[in-house]
What we know:
Elements (H helix, E strand, L loop, with lengths): L5 E6 L3 E7 L1 E11 L2 E10 L2 E10 L4 E9 L4 E7 L18 E3 L7 H62 L7 H15 L1 H8 L7 H20 L8 H24 L6 H7 L3 H26 L4 E2 L7 E2 L2 H37 L1
Parallel strand pairs: 1-8
Antiparallel strand pairs: 1-2, 2-7, 3-4, 4-5, 6-7, 9-10
Helix pairs in contact: 1-2, 1-5, 2-4, 2-5, 3-4, 4-7, 4-8, 5-6, 5-7, 7-8
Amino acid sequence: MPLTPLVYWAQRHxxxxxxxxxxxxxxxxxxxxxxxxxFKAQGHGAKGQNEYEFSLEFLSxxxxxxxxxxxxxxxxxxxxxxxxxxxxxxxxxERKPVFLAPDFDRWLDESDAEMEIREKEEKKNRLKAxxxxxxxxxxxxxxxxxxxxxxxxxxxxxxxxxxxTVRLFIFGQDSLYDTFHTISDVMFFCQILAAVEVLNAAxxxxxSGVIPTLIQVVGRNFVLFIIFGSxxxxxxxxxxxxxxxxxxxxxxxxxxxxxxxxxxxEWKTLTWLRYTIWIPLYPLxxxxxxxxxxxxxxxxxxxxxxxxxLPKALGTSISFSFVxxxxxxxxxxxxxxxxxxxxxxxxxxxxxxxxKAN
Length: 358
């Protein structure tokens, strides 16, 4: 007659727990088939070191997957119930096996088990609420950061646009020649700050394409710092006025649109301007930048600024104007890329609006 170990059991609404009193158990075999659990293992039980086995036919259907864990003192078995519920007993037969007893360390009656479930649910809900608050805090911080950033940029470009407009009305054509001296400090600040937009796109703070943003920021800063900033001869050129004016005209529409977007608010007129005004202004801005590049090429040739020295055997150097010719080609390539990107944005935006209207 096979030896049977002492087995203690307890339950919850979802699981059955069995604790087999068998120390140093080895060659453990646990299986559930046709709602009957079969157990066999070598270990030290009530009859010393022997092979012990038992079987249990459950009261209700259980899932065939069994989880068991062995420690030096016992073997723990977990069986999933086929349906959530509370069993009046463990086995199909009313008379329980002699080796089976309640596990009072884990024993709960039905009301206690329901209370435990409620406590678990409440704990889950508290964790969810805590995570939700953390997410809300992060979203609020991100929203505040984006709003302040867009507000600062809007104020900066608004000052540039209004200042240039007022000076144009007051001084007329003369205002075209001193734009750099009166406006450049604020434009330098705004364009340095614009680099944050590339980081925002790269790190997913905003849902914008990294490449189009990078093309615009790098392109503008190249014109501002390399052409206007480093060549004193360019400071009094009217092209500075047109470049700065077109840049600021675009941005005084774009940044308020982003500010409202931080709070999921929309002003239809501003939205239409945001997705329409670039059609004339963006190509004009690139054209003005191209004129600045062309005007700077003879100056770079004459001053040898940024020229690349070659070995003495060649006896010459590569003028930076060669880089400017390459940049001129890249500028129009960037125009095509950004124009296509902006057109897709506009088409997607107003197509969505039409669908909502229908």
